[in-house]
Amino acid sequence: MDTTEIEDVCEFTLAEALEMEHLYRKRGKESQQQKFCEELATKFRQLFSAVKSKSLVADSNAATKQHAPINTSPIALKNLVALSKAWAAAERPKKPKGAERVAELSDLIFEALSSKDCAWYDVAAFLNFRVLYCGELEVRVRFCGFSHDQDEWVNVRRGLRERSIPLVPSECHKVKVGDHLLCYRANEDHALYSDAHAIKVERQLHDKDDCTCIFVVRFEYDNAEAELECSCICRRPS
């Protein structure tokens, strides 16, 4: 995809993506039917056009000419639902309506795996989606702090997850040997956040505001080991 094509892609926010997922969850068993899959795919294409033109496109065939063909399947839709499991857990006892619900969804944060350097970055927005012939869903993401020329297609199942939690000094005791972590690694060539596992923890007495413990981790990417401070570590949500 060249720069011109990227600029023409309508930005599709997380709140909008999860709002459309509500339609899928609301229809229940009916969502397993092919007709529903086709309707949902058409709805996505129309909303992409609506963001740009401020009105829905009545002819779905015209929208198809502007976007790559999309195959739909129940498997792909299940993957879409998996993208936002946190939504159901975060809902209030009494479901908010319309704008209130969208406002809540916008607070959800995800991180995505870049295929360029195998590092994780916060997601600023979801721009588009596509379904592969194998039934897996991919989303095009814009990373926080990066311009459109750094947008990437990311596999929802393998490369998209809820954002990691920065480790604070008062919670350093929560890190155990064997834990899956997201850790900061820097050298002359790069400064990245990569997946790692804790292999040793050297605990020290300290106050709640300044952790002096040393965490020895092994990075998944190249099996390199490093001694890190609390400020270089993020925990995975439980």
TrEMBL record:
Domain SAWADEE residues, every copy: 107-234
InterPro entries, per the entry: SAWADEE_dom, SHH1/2
An example molecular function term from Gene Ontology annotations: chromatin binding
Protein name: SAWADEE domain-containing protein
Species, as recorded: Cynara cardunculus var. scolymus (Globe artichoke)
